[in-house]
Amino acid sequence: MKKLLAALVCSLPLVSALAVDVYDRDPDHTFAFFEFNHLGFSTQRERFDKVDATVTLDLENQVGSVEVSIDVRSISTGSSMFNQILLSDTFFDVEKFPVVTFKSTKLNFGKLDDVVSVEGELTIKGITHPLTLTVTQFKCAMHPMLRKSACGLNATGKLRRSEFNLGRFAPLISDQITLLVSMEALKR
Q: Burial of 101 by CB count in 10 Å (0-12 exposed, 13-18 middle, 19+ buried)?
């Protein structure tokens, strides 16, 4: 009996580890957007088309992590001239800093095992600052078309571009940027 009890106690971490699910982003449904005020005339929304993300979730224990990598060259503004300006050393300096990353430090859960916010560190141009993303929509379920477990979320956060050495033309072009994320991820 003691051996059986010892074996059960030793296997508890393994059972707990089995509850952890790993999801990889669906590239056709995962994008990062950013919005800014342009000279007081309009709010401009730009997008990065290539966003790689891995999500680890243990809903039962309400823990998890998120790692995101954004290919800066995939910026899509609708204007090839504006794309080139943003990719230049004046802004993103894509030759030296081709990737933007976000690594979570904590996922915060609501009453229904839903993720309500993600705390983490955002790195742009080699500069890292904390960023909290507020989750506005979260759902995990069986994907009706792919017949795989899937999770999706929409999230938003605010940052100051000047903190990442992207502050040119502020305050004419707003220093505060709204970051928006739309992600769907499929279980491995």
A: middle
Whole-prediction pTM value?
Answer: 0.87
Question: Distance between CA atoms of 121 and 176, rounded to whole angstroms?
Answer: 17
Domains of the chain and CATH, by start:
20-187 (2.40.128.110)
CB 125 within 8 A of CB 89: no
87 Cα distance to chain centroid: 21
First vs last Cα of the chain: how many Å apart? 37
User: How do residues 116-155 score in pLDDT, each as one tens digit?
Assistant: 999 999 999 999 999 999 999 999 999 999 999 999 999 9
Query: Is beta strand 99-109 parallel, antiparallel or unpaired with respect to 127-142?
Result: unpaired
